[in-house]
Amino acid sequence: MTGGKRETGDQGGKQNHGAGKGPDQRSGKVPEQRSGTRLQVFLAHAGLASRRAAEGIIATGRVSVNGVVVSEQGSKVFPGDTVLVDGKPVRAESRRYYLALNKPPGYICSSSDPQGRPLALNLLPGEIHERLYNVGRLDFLSCGLIFFTNDGDFAARLGHPGSGLEKEYIVEATGHIPDEAALAFEKGITIEGEYYRAQTVQRVNSRALRIVLIEGKNREIRRVFSHFHLHPSRLRRVRIGPVQLGSLAEGESRPLTKQELEKLRG
Asked: What is the value of pTM for the model shown?
């Protein structure tokens, strides 16, 4: 989990790290080329970000290799190289983690919080020392299923709006939920210039709905409920794609199964 940005300083400007060497001036021979790893791939394998996001990190000059700032795409790193992002060392991680957590209410999905609120990340097993981060979010008061991983490409694929990944919620309100609100959410409704539409909305009882979203905009369910003067007393995510929350206790986590990962990857 990377902390706040720190200046890396001027350490010699750009380099084309890993570029092929020219002929040896004494022998005239071209030295053997070393095979390296593209820097954005290395950063993704280190669990820092997806490859695309890593390209943005590189472009902004936040990465240095062996003391030299690298901002060119396609640069390579080799075994033994020292890679820093925002002045902090980054190492490739050989083991991949894919965890499902049942987040309780009152935890924030972030690597840090200036307000000192509890982090969902700290509920994960203590023996995992790799850098993990959440796939998508659940807001501070919401609870239920959320994934954590150190696979940047996996996280980017699942988090992309075009992934078509369904997310299912059980939402309980403090009072009766009128049919008007449920029907409007399923049909589609514009609130303050933003369009919201659930994939499906099913009634559980007079005060609870089962809602399936695909794109899932920020605080979408809460904003639709607020529009109809409804207050969610409990918002719980019970499914992400093929993965069910099931009997996983609040605050507990488990590895995703091989079958679940295969289905998530499509």
From this structure: 0.72
Q: Left (φ > 0), alpha (ψ -120 to 50) or beta: where does 263 sit?
A: alpha
pLDDT in tens, 196-246: 999 999 999 999 999 999 987 889 999 999 999 999 999 999 999 999 999
Q: Is 81 a catalytic residue?
A: no
Proportion of the chain in helix, strand, coil states, percent, rounded to 5: 20, 25, 50
CATH classification for the domain delimited by 98-265, as one of 3.30.70.270, 3.40.50.720, 3.30.110.30, 3.30.2350.10: 3.30.2350.10
Select which of 139, 151, 153, 179 is catalytic.
Answer: 139
State which fold the 1-91 domain adopts. 3.10.290
* Alpha-carbon span 101 to 245, nearest angstrom: 9
Find, among 207, 219, 209, the residue nearest to 184 by Cα.
209
Cβ pair 92, 45 in contact under 8 A:
yes
Q: What SS3 class is residue 260?
A: helix
Q: 252: Cβ–Cβ under 8 A, 6 or more apart, which residues?
A: 101, 102, 123
